[in-house]
Structure formats: structure tokens, C-alpha cells
Specification:
This protein is an alpha/beta fold and about 775 residues long. It is built from 28 helices and 23 strands. Strands 1-14-13-12-11-10-8-2 form an eight-stranded parallel sheet.
């Protein structure tokens, strides 16, 4: 009989208990023992839920206090020396120092770099390696969590990033060859596998999602070398887990590796099943990812069951596992909590719990269970109801899309002419200073929002409160000496949710949180239908903020690709079609902001690179429609109106031409954690427009010194002309506190002034 399993489960808790505990610990109001108690309770609750929904095998070590890649680096002793003194005194403090930075007790430490996990909105911490790196088992987290689950009577399977994926996603800071470190790393893995075997583990899951990427011969050789060595070590049976795309030209390599089972993603790559069945040796377990681990819609159980039957016919049920396509980290906890949703839409949804229930139904149906057949019939009826629902279609939107012309995606003039007009209109100094948009969402702001939502604070009182916060933000920016101001976004709950709440075609959950990084959680909107803007969304607040100052006020919008990517998007039409609808809605907002007197408008696209397909063969088509959608959103304004965009945690080398094609007047980006390395792509391409390379890391509580920011600006000057450079943080400031924000921005303004003087002196 086919087994039901899961590659990983959401770790933040049903009500974000992990987030709450982490932030209390960081503030010093919760000690380490209490934090570990919260973590243990969450792990065990998640394991018990999986068993209750019918899972035969439970993943362990998928839980983390911050990030699994970071956990793995610490597990094998790959910890940069700068954190070791803190870790020697307090291992947990050292761990969080590497994730968040550390500025206390005479230490001033940067955090490790952070970037997107493949094409998801989850961020992982990038391990930092160097030539001669020594790997040795330095902890027992996977063993301890396996024994914890075993004591509860659970069939547990430890989960780890595979050794090759770990190396491919890490960074060799001295430019050395990462594969020179492979043998040492595999030795540490072998040591761990032996200890897991001694503890009684029957299976271990090694995640190798990099097998879904374009790989060269050297990387494929590294896979063969690593797994040949692991095959010689004592250890549990090994499940090699791939996901996020097809194996394609890596299938022969994956199928030939000496492992005991292979997981494949049939949601992203349904066409690969027959090839996998042909290539995988008969004695291997085959795990089929037949339920979408990244979106919230109910599964087409008829299609999933057909996949399972094809595989079972070829291999037999005993060699077959049924699983989500990838870890359920990327979806919310339980759709049953969403009792405020419109009933029709609620019936279309499946969160982590429901996805495991779907897998149990599939396994039971495969075994001929009558009740399972009834459940599949109910799922079929729900899908049919969704397909025929009038909620999803807006004929006016579709007619407007049909009327879009190529001219609507082009600015009136080229950048040099626009730049000339913008210089004359804005009167900004060299190296102008600004921020990315948001200011601290303090406890008072969150409390007022909650009181307003619950009806305890009336509309007029809430408006007065928000006006006061906006006025404070404007005054603080003027006192700091910033050149281009923002209104602070105090009325906004989230950079996507805020806009979705004002657009047709969206719905919202109360508890649908997912982890973005560390304690940062987001509650993505759900796009179920055609998108339209029934009214202006930001104009009133920007007009008010501009009335408070003579300095230019920057309008802030979230771009079409990012709204698309950071929502749970409908799966009944192409992504490009939904993105064009979003672009038209945002175009109306951009034009209304300009009409209200706003001369600088920023349309953030931090997900632009994140949405890039993992395979090069699919990228040209994506970039074509993504660039077209951005340009459709912004090209309705006059030349003198300056268009900004923001991108964070992106590798630009493979999309630099597309970034240039977006034709934003100014692009800002994260560069502080990489020490301006991300600007290398712009140097080689000779990007013509203006760039704001982030000069300090807002994801860390540390406040950098003026000299540090000046050094980063000097690095930027080696790549860019002074006339191209803007000075800004690397992201929005909503998660920070006012004292550190004011200190950091004050030093940033000072660094900009120092650089202006240096440029003037050189001239």
C-alpha cells in the first residue's frame, strides 16, 4: 500500500507562536529555556497533526529557530570566525548573531547574507565558506529531534539539505572552488548518518532541489562523487528529494545515484513521470509530489490519482510514497480556521492540513477504499463549482486587456531626455538621499490598526492617529536632512495585502501566515478572479503628506510582478494574464498620483528576479511579459515624473538586460550584505540610468558607522558615476525601531554629504 508522507511542515505555528517567542527572546523578555520550550511544543504539535491526518512517515529537523541552511552550517561547524567568540559564551546568541548581526558588548558584527530560496518568497541565510574549510559534526539537532519524535511513537524521518545543494547555495568568500570542499563535507554527513542509524532512524531525507536547475558536467560529477561516498557509510536508507521543477537532463544522474528512494515534483513537472518510471531502478522507492506545496487551491484528485495508479502499476504500491510537491513551509497551516471567508471561496482552498488529508484520500483510494471514492467525488464537485463560478470573471477587465496597445508600454521619451526634465523639475543635490518607503510600524501603530479592525477605534479617530504618525515621519525626515521624503505607510498592513484589499478579484485570510525569514511572516492575499481597481488606493495619503513639506514626496506602490508573486495566485489562467490585469490597475494609480502633484513614484518589484524560471530555456518568455507588465504600469506619466523601482536580495547578472529594459529612471537594491558585490553586473553592463545601492542592512538591528556607509559608497563609485548614485537603506524600515532608524539615517545623510564633498574636491 502507498505510504503518505510530507517533505516538511510550516514551523511558525497556528497563531505565529514561534514569531512571538523569537521577538520576546530578542527583546530580553523571554529566556532561552522558555524559547526552546515553545519550539518543542510547536514541533510536537505539528508532528501529532501530521499523524492525525494520516501521514505514515513524519519529517523531523525541518523545524528551525531561524533557517534550515543556517542550522546545517552550524551543525557541521561552518561558522565564520567572527561569531565564534559570542557562540563560545552563548551558542544561541552566536547563532542569532550570524542570522541578524550583533552590536553589543564591544562587538559590531554583520549578519550573513540572505537571499531567496529558489523561486519562492522564503529567504535563506547563505553559509559562508572559504578555502580549507573544516567540516565536523558540531551538534546533534537532527538526532535529538528524531529521538524526541521516536519517544512519541512516531515513524520519523530526519530531513537535511543534501551536501551538493548545500555547497551550491553557500558562498565561497575567497573565490575558491566550492567542490574542493566536497569530500570533507560528505565525511561530516557520513558521521551524522551513522549516528542517526545508531539512534534507530530507518530513513533520512536529503533535499537536492538543485537537481531541478541547469547543471554542468562538473556539478553532475560532484553529485556522483558525493553519493558514492555516502553509499559506503553506515546510515539509514536515503530518500533523495528533488522539487521546484523537472529533472530533465539531470534525470539520468539522479536515477543512477546509489540512494534508496527518489522524490519528484509532479505539480511543477507533471510530464516527467513516465521518464522517471523508465529511468529509476525497480528496487527504489518512488515518492510522487502530487499535491501542490506552494499554493492554496484544492487539488485535482482525479489527476493525482491517475499519476499514482500509473506509478503503482509499474512499481507496486509498496514502493510508492505520496507527498506534497515540496515542503509545506510555503503554505498556511489550516483552512478550517478561515470561517470568515466567503463560503464558495473557502471551499476551493487547501492549506497544509488539508493537503495532507488529500494525500490520505489518494492513498486510500489507490487501495480501493469506498469512503475515499466519495471524498474524491466531493473534491471533483468543488473543482467544477469553481470553474463555473461567476466570481472569477469580470468582462470589463477582459475587454480592457484586449484594447491594450504596444504604445501603452513605452515612455514618451528616452531616459536622457527624461533625466534632463527631471533634473530641472526636482532640483535634487548630487547623491540624493531617500528611503525605500516604510517607517517603523510601532506597537502603537499595530495596536491602533487592530482596534480599528475590531471596531473599538472609529474611522475619524483612526484617521487622526494616522495623520499624526505621518506628520511625525515627515518632520523626522526633514530634521535628518533627507532629500526625497516618504509618507511612512502607517496605514498599510503589508506591501501586497494593502493593495489587494482595495482591488477586485482578491480575498484575504485571518490566519493564513507563512514564513518569509526568521520571525518575519506574511499573510499573502488570494487572487481568485479578474483584477480591477474600483477607486484610488494611495492618492489621498500622498496628497496629505505632500501638503506637510516643500520637499518632494515619493509615492509608493507595489509592482504587478511582486503582487502576483507574493499572492496565492489563481491557477486557472496563465500568470502573464493575471499580471497584465494588475499592471492596468496600477497604471491608473500611477496616473492619479501624478495628477495629484506627486513627481516621484516608486513601484517596487522585489520579486522580479525571484519569479525568474529556474531553467534558462523558460526565462526569455517570462522576462518578456514581466518587463511588459512593469512598463504598462508606469508608462502613462509625463517625462518629468520620475519612476523608481526597488529590488532586494537579487542576483542581477542573468537579468541585467531585462532590468534595463524596464526603463525605470532610478532602481534601488540590496547591496549592503554583499558589500556592493551585486553592483558588478551593472559595471559590466554599463547600466545607463540611476541606481540606489543600499548602504545599510535594515534586516539587522545594528546601526552602522558613517565610515562603513562611506566605504560602501566609495565601492559604488568604482562601478557607477556619481551622477547615477542615490543613497538609501537596502529595504523598508517597518520592522525597525525609531531610535535605531534615526541613528542610522542620520549617519547615512552624513555619509552622503561626505561623498558629495569628496566628489566636489576631486572635480
Amino acid at each position: 500500500m502507498a505510504q503518505v508522507t510530507c517533505l516538511g511542515f510550516p514551523r511558525i505555528g497556528r497563531r505565529r507562536e514561534l514569531k512571538v517567542a523569537l521577538e520576546k527572546y530578542w527583546k530580553g523578555t523571554l529566556d532561552a529555556a522558555a524559547l526552546h520550550e515553545v519550539a518543542r511544543n510547536l514541533r510536537q504539535a505539528h508532528w501529532q497533526l501530521q499523524r492525525a491526518t494520516g501521514a505514515d512517515s513524519i519529517p523531523v529537523n525541518d523545524f528551525s529557530l531561524y533557517d534550515t541552511m543556517l542550522d546545517t552550517a552550524w551543525l557541521f561547524g561552518a561558522v565564520p570566525e567572527r561569531y565564534q567568540q559570542i557562540a563560545a559564551a552563548d551558542p544561541l546568541a552566536g547563532y542569532f548573531a550570524s542570522a541578524r548581526g550583533y552590536h553589543a558588548d564591544g562587538h559590531d558584527l554583520h549578519a550573513l547574507e540572505m537571499t531567496k530560496w529558489f523561486d519562492t518568497n522564503y529567504h535563506y541565510i547563505v553559509p559562508e565558506l572559504r578555502r580549507g574549510q573544516i567540516f565536523a559534526l558540531s551538534g546533534d539537532k537532527p538526532i535529538a529531534e528524531f529521538l524526541e519524535a521516536k519517544a512519541l511513537g512516531l515513524a520519523a524521518r530526519p530531513v537535511l539539505p543534501g551536501p551538493v545543494t548545500f555547497l551550491l547555495l553557500a558562498k565561497c568568500v575567497d573565490g575558491s572552488n566550492r567542490f574542493d570542499l566536497l569530500d570533507g563535507l560528505v565525511g561530516a554527513y557520513a558521521d551524522l548518518l551513522g549516528k542517526l542509524h545508531d539512534a534507530g532512524a530507518e530513513w533520512v531525507q536529503l533535499d537536492e532541489p538543485c537537481l531541478a536547475l541547469d547543471l554542468d558536467d562538473a556539478t553532475r560529477a560532484a553529485y556522483r562523487r558525493a553519493y558514492a561516498a555516502l553509499a559506503q557509510a553506515r546510515g539509514p536508507r536515503r530518500l533523495l528529494a528533488t522539487y521546484f521543477g523537472p529533472l530533465d537532463d539531470n534525470l539520468a544522474t539522479a536515477a543512477a545515484l546509489p540512494v534508496d528512494g527518489l522524490h519528484v515534483d509532479l505539480v511543477r513537472a507533471p510530464d516527467q513521470l513516465d521518464a522517471v518510471l523508465d529511468a529509476l531502478p525497480a528496487e527504489r522507492v518512488l515518492s510522487l509530489g502530487v499535491v501542490d506545496g506552494r499554493n492554496v487551491w484544492r487539488s485535482d484528485l482525479d489527476t493525482a490519482l491517475a499519476f499514482a495508479r500509473r506509478a503503482a502499476k509499474r512499481r507496486g504500491g509498496d514502493q510508492l510514497w505520496l507527498a506534497p510537491s515540496c515542503s509545506l513551509l510555503h503554505v498556511p497551516y489550516d483552512a478550517a480556521d478561515e470561517d470568515a471567508l466567503q463560503p464558495d471561496i473557502r471551499g476551493w482552498l487547501a492549506f497544509a492540513r488539508q493537503k495532507l488529508e488529500e494525500l490520505r484520500v489518494l492513498a486510500d483510494a489507490l487501495a480501493g477504499d469506498t469512503a475515499a471514492r466519495a471524498a474524491i467525488a466531493a473534491a471533483r464537485a468543488a473543482l467544477a463549482q469553481r470553474r463555473s463560478s461567476r466570481l472569477a470573471v469580470n468582462r470589463a477587465v477582459r475587454q480592457r486587456i484586449d484594447a491594450v496597445t504596444p504604445e501603452m508600454s513605452r515612455r514618451h521619451s528616452t531616459y536622457p531626455e527624461r533625466h534632463r526634465q527631471q533634473v530641472a523639475a526636482l532640483h535634487l543635490p548630487l547623491l540624493p538621499t531617500t528611503t525605500i518607503g516604510s517607517f517603523p510600524q510601532t506597537h502603537a501603530v499595530r495596536q491602533a490598526r487592530a482596534a480599528h479592525r475590531s471596531g473599538k477605534l472609529g474611522d475619524a479617530e483612526y484617521r487622526k492617529f494616522l495623520e499624526a504618525e505621518t506628520g511625525r515621519a515627515v518632520r523626522e525626515q526633514e530634521q535628518l536632512g533627507l532629500d526625497v521624503l516618504v509618507h511612512g505607510e502607517f496605514e498599510r498592513n503589508d506591501m501586497v495585502e494593502y493593495f489587494g484589499e482595495q482591488l477586485d478579484g482578491f480575498t484575504f485570510t485571518r490566519h493564513g501566515w507563512v514564513q518569509s525569514y526568521g520571525s518575519r511572516c506574511v499573510k499573502p492575499p488570494i487572487i481568485y478572479g479578474d483584477v480591477a481597481r474600483p477607486h484610488a488606493m494611495t492618492v489621498d495619503w500622498l496628497r496629505y503628506a505632500q501638503s506637510l513639506t516643500d520637499k518632494p514626496m515619493k509615492g509608493m506602490l507595489t509592482g504587478p510582478v511582486t503582487i502576483l508573486k507574493w499572492s496565492f495566485v489563481r491557477d486557472d489562467q496563465p500568470l502573464a494574464a493575471t499580471c497584465r490585469q494588475l499592471a492596468l490597475a496600477l497604471r491608473d494609480e500611477v496616473c492619479d498620483l501624478e495628477a495629484a502633484g506627486i513627481r516621484i513614484i516608486q513601484i517596487d518589484e522585489p520579486a522580479f528576479r525571484e519569479a525568474l524560471p529556474l531553467r534558462r530555456s523558460e526565462r526569455k518568455a517570462y522576462l518578456a511579459w514581466a518587463v511588459a507588465c512593469f512598463r504598462l504600469a508606469v508608462s502613462g506619466v509625463r517625462d518629468a515624473t520620475q519612476i523608481h523601482t526597488h529590488m532586494c536580495y537579487s542576483e542581477f547578472g542573468d537579468i541585467i538586460e531585462a532590468v534595463a529594459a524596464m526603463d525605470a529612471d532610478v532602481i534601488s537594491m540590496e547591496t549592503s550584505r554583499s558589500r556592493m558585490e551585486l553592483l558588478d553586473a551593472f559595471a559590466q553592463f554599463h547600466y545607463p540610468n540611476e541606481i540606489g545601492p543600499g548602504v545599510y542592512d535594515i534586516h539587522s538591528p545594528r546601526v552602522p558607522e558613517v565610515a562603513e556607509m562611506t566605504d560602501l559608497l566609495q565601492r559604488a563609485r568604482k562601478v557607477l558615476q556619481p551622477q547615477q548614485i542615490w543613497v538609501n537603506p537596502d529595504c523598508g524600515l517597518k520592522t525597525r525601531d525609531w531610535p535605531e532608524v534615526k541613528a542610522a539615517l542620520g549617519r547615512m545623510v552624513e555619509a552622503a554629504r561626505a561623498m558629495r564633498a569628496e566628489v566636489a574636491g576631486a572635480a
